[in-house]
Amino acid sequence: MRFIIAILFFFSPFFSVADNLNGIWKGILTQGTGGCYPQYFIELQINFANNIITGKAYDYYDTTKFVKLNFTGKYNPQTHRLVLIETKVVQYNIPVDCAPCIKTYDLIYEKKGNDETLNGEWKGHIMDRKNACPPGKISLKKAMHSDFPVDIDQNDTLAAIQQTLHLQKRAIALSKSLVVDTSSIKLQFYDDAEIDGDTITVLINNKLLLYQQRLTEKPLTIYFNAFPGTEYELVMYADNLGTIPPNTALMVVTAGEKRYDVYLSSSEQKSASVKFIYNPKQ
Fold first, then answer.
1. Which residues, 6+ apart, have CB-to-CB distance to 160 below 8 Å?
2. In sequence order, what are the residues at sequence separation of 6 or more whose Cβ sits closer than 8 angstroms to the Cβ of residue 222?
3. How far apart are alpha carbons 211 and 200 in whole angstroms?
């Protein structure tokens, strides 16, 4: 059987990474004799927040034949070495005579002028087996746009809840649009004015990030990482109206050195929304 590529990355103790690794990386991945194809396209969607790298990887011959994976990793800024670890094969649509290959990527980051690159090698084994995949090389360049949907990171508990979640359909009222100049964004939700038992559910780009959480004087906190060229819409859904309708919240947005206070109001007829666009500093 020939083997198509999937990704499992070897993890080792490195240091934290600056924002320059955030974003979409596209390029070419080669594979030795015995692989499903000698060369593939590859896209990495790299997120960095709170000293942790996570993201999605797509190995593909074309956008209809692909393997999608989750990964984690760390970066050593002294050596510019990046090691990524695949944690789960999320989805694949590949020829019947191909099989996903769980891989380790060992990459070096380099910047020359406005060009940023990741280059290195990989090795791995076939999914659910110990057999080695033919190894190869990888070359990536930072890009402004993805060939695939850009996901929002979500933990396993919220992912399981969302599979059975059925929120009542409501109108969406845009409260504010924000343009930020950093990819790492922190959101904190407080009850606005008097604490009256309001609970909220929050989604970003239809991905569940808070579920039936009570608003108090202590913040409910969400971290998310934005990619350039992608619009993000946060929706605050009112699970109840508390004792003083409607359901209101103060959302404090921290993006780099900037802070924004956004007041949100949701009811049984409409949900409040905020849109974010990341426009990198030139």
1. none
2. 186, 187, 188, 189, 202, 204, 209, 210
3. 7
> Tens of pLDDT along 115-157?
999 999 998 888 888 788 899 999 999 998 889 988 888 888 9
At the second CATH level, the architecture of 19-143 is: Beta Barrel (2.40)
> Does pTM top 0.90 for this prediction?
no
Q: Which two tokens stand for residue 29?
A: 């991945």
One-letter amino acid at 92 equals Y
Q: Angle at the Cα of 49 (from 216 to 250), degrees rounded to 5?
A: 25
Q: Class of 167-278 per CATH?
A: mainly beta
b/e map of 25-35 (b: 16 or more CB within 10 Å)? bbbebbbeeeb
Where do the domains of the chain lie? 19-143, 167-278
CA 221/CA 214 separation, integer angstroms: 12
Cα Rg of the chain, angstroms: 21
Closest CA to 203 of 259, 267, 150, 274: 274
